[in-house]
Amino acid sequence: MHYTDAPDASCQLLKFIDLLREHAIPCDSFQLSSGYTTIGSRRYVFTWDRDKFSQPTDTTRHFRDAGLHLAANIKPALLTTHPYYRDVAEAGIFVTNSRTGEPATSMFWGGHGGNVDFTNPRGVQWWKGNVRHQLIDMGIESTWNDNNEYELWSEDAICDGFGHPVELDRIRPVQALLTSRASFEAQREAAPVERPFLISRSGPLGLQRYVQTWSGDNSTSWRTLKYNTRMGVGMSMSGLVNFGHDVGGFAGTARPGPELFARWVANGVMHPRFTIHSWHNDGSVNEPWMYPEITDIVREMIRLRYRLIPFLYTLSYLAAERREPIVNPVFSLDDTLHQESDDFLLGHDLLVASVVEKGQTTRTVTLPHVSDGWFEFDTGVHHDPGTVTLEAPLDRLPLLVCAGAGIPQCELPAPSGEIITTRTVENSPHRIVLYLPDGNGHSQGFFFDDDGHTNGYRQGHGYWLTWSADHTDTTVIVHTHVEGDYQPSWGTMAFALRPGDDRAIKVVADAAQD
Fewest CB atoms less than 10 Å from the CB: which of 319, 384, 387, 452? Predict the structure, then answer.
């Protein structure tokens, strides 16, 4: 928000790309806040501030050339001073006042405004046309559907209801859902081969069919870090599996201090959505490089996320195709752990024990009761189920892997002048690290990959790998089976053993893979 509200917004955005390179911060996208739509001090959806962006396509091209994607903020309310307002009102596509037939208005940013009615087919088509011509044709690939709570607090507000008029009070959340669906359809129609990616702040259950979401305008505090985690577990269990939180806090008197920011980044990289986003009273902005003394820590935490994208992507596939939550509560493995917890699971194999208290350098964790215990992700140290205390200096996020699991990951290149993106991941060597218990045993697991942007996997153009491992005190034999005709650019999947496991490992591929 800081960038697009600046008078020289386009210059600030290009500077952002340079700063990513300078500080070697991995990044895939930038969310273009509503400052790009200002005329004077007011924000007018589907317009461009030509003083800030004389040629919007120049800005979008620079991001595309850097391998970055842009998502533009849009809001389903038009101020009465909006240059399109009268035409939209005359077309009859606003939510209306049932007594007067005029647009129902309420306070919005900068004055009174009317809200597009997405139960009116004309409203849907108007919206989709603007997404196409004002955004996609300008080089914007994705929409950020914001401020869509429909805060028209009038009993007289009525919606078209697809030809069956209905009071807004009865379907308020549905309008937010239909906003997202209209944006989804506009993006899909513009690029039929691509899987649409978009974001929404609001909506009822069902929102997950169309968008990624987040927990809204949180505040900058240790308390927020703690309770956003718990809120997210609830969202995930409710079906909204693709979510995250504004890292560092969106609103506050000032940006978070170095310790809080480092811990927040470490927490954020372990969520399906990872975004640093802010607007502080003092005009400051949360940026990865804002504290030189912790920039290395921030970079390494974000690199950890990118290393784990093969794991996170597999979980995303399982969520989409098998309805398995990405984020799980610890009691999903141990029903004695129903008390509130600052821990959560990614899938069922990786336990995230974020530090959420100021000044902590250790972290006490109650590990769920699973048959063979848990291993520390980075050291391979084994722990039995129960309560343990782990070292947690500022540069360490305590992660534990369920014994018997394999964690897919990639090997990133060293930091350089090129920005690391998911395209880097696609072209980096992949391996599954096995966290096997000592002695004899059998384990198995699953991995998925595809081209990352089409629905080709639904026609078999994917990479479905199942593996099983039989192990003794001295050897590990891994059997793999691959289905699908997708040939990943990263090559052949490698297997490795957890730190400290020096057994001999042999991988035997199914003959059908040759």
Answer: 387
The 10s digit of each residue's pLDDT in 62-89 is 999 999 999 999 999 999 999 999 999 9
459-490 residue pLDDT tens? 999 999 999 999 999 999 999 999 999 999 99
Amino acid at 389: T
Report the alpha-carbon distance of residue 476 to residue 397 in Å, rounded.
Answer: 29
3-state helix, strand, coil in the chain (%, to 5): 30, 25, 45
Sheet holding 350-352, edge to edge: 327-328, 344-346, 350-352, 399-402, 374-376, 382-383
Return phi, psi of residue 140, to 5°: -85, 125
Could you tell me if 439 and 473 are in contact, meaning their C-beta atoms sit under 8 angstroms apart? Answer: yes
pLDDT digits (tens, 9 = 90+) for 116-139: 999 999 999 999 999 999 999 999
Residue 371 to residue 159: CA distance in whole angstroms: 56
Q: Measuring CA to CA, which residue among 391, 393, 390, 347 is closest to residue 367?
A: 390
Describe the crossing of helices 295-307 and 258-268 by its angle, rounded to 10 degrees: 0
Structure tokens at 148: 């869509």
Give yes or no for residue 514 having a pLDDT over 50: no
β-pairing, 142-145 vs 111-115, is unpaired
Taking the C-alpha atoms of residue 118 and residue 135, their distance in angstroms, rounded to an integer, is: 19
Work out the number of other CB atoms within 10 angstroms of the CB of residue 266.
27
Q: How far is CA 294 from the centre of its chain?
A: 23
Q: In what order do the strands lie in the sheet with 157-159?
A: 96-97, 157-159, 166-167
Contact status, residue 319 vs residue 325, Cβ threshold 8 Å: yes
Number of other residues whose CB lies within 10 A of the CB of residue 180:
25
69 SS3 class: strand
The per-residue pLDDT for range 391-407, each reduced to its tens digit, is 999 999 999 999 999 99
Q: How far is 313 from 322, CA to CA, in rounded Å? A: 14
Rounded to whole angstroms, the Cα distance separating 151 from 147 reads 9
**Cβ atoms of 268 and 356 closer than 8 Å:** no
Asked whether the beta carbons of 94 and 103 are under 8 A apart, the reply is yes
Which DSSP symbol is given to 357? S
Buried b (16+ CB within 10 A) or exposed e, 353-373: bbbbeeeeeebebbbbebebb
pLDDT-derived band at 105, boundaries 50, 70, 90 = very high
- The confidence band for 510, taking pLDDT boundaries of 50, 70 and 90, is confident
